[in-house]
């Protein structure tokens, strides 16, 4: 256990202001039946010696364990999902309609809930603009005209960016005999 800092705060056990150590310790939590080891931050009263965690510390503990689990299994995280929706300029509700999943599902994933294996695979696939475009073409009838216009503008922006990247790549000479001759 390592002490991160000492603060003056209320101890819920002593019911008085005390010096409180904010500590970090390796802990294990089960996520989907699997042990996940992570860094847990909690508080310890220097007077009574009892430990406790604030709501914020408990939320951070759960997210820390989930982050380890996501990294271990290649699962998309909340920030990636928010960035993906921003790239396509699509609301949570419209994104759920395009993916043909429940309205609150995207919101729960963006709040930290770990997607199922099938949903994670689907989200990874639509993170590739070409795949999103295919899905959008198939399901855009489910969206309002306003939402379709927003997505169309975002896809046009992505197409311009991709063309610019392709032009830069095409301007770089390929590796070949000339490259090999220059190495000698």
Please, could you describe this protein's structure?
It is a single chain. With 184 residues, the protein is an alpha+beta fold. The protein folds into two domains: 2-73, Ubiquitin-like (UB roll) (Roll); 78-171, no CATH class. Helices cover 55% and strands 22% of the residues. It contains eight helices and four strands, in the order E-E-E-E-H-H-H-H-H-H-H-H. It has helices spanning 55-73, 78-88, 92-99, 103-110, 117-126, 129-139, 145-171, 177-183, and strands at residues 2-11, 16-31, 34-45, 51-52. The protein has a four-stranded antiparallel β-sheet with strand order 1-2-3-4, with helices on one face. A hairpin with a 2-residue loop joins strand 2 and strand 3 (34-45). Helix 3 packs across helix 4 (103-110). The longest helix has 27 residues, at 145-171. The protein starts with a strand and ends with a helix.
Number of domains: 2
- Give the low-confidence spans: none
Number of helices: 8
The average pLDDT value, as a whole number, equals 89
Rg is 24 Å
What is the spatial order of strands in the main beta sheet? 1-2-3-4
Derived from helix and strand composition plus strand pairing, the structural class reads alpha+beta
Task: Please provide the count of β strands.
Answer: 4
Q: What best-fitting shape do the alpha-carbon axes yield?
A: elongated
Strand content: 15-25%
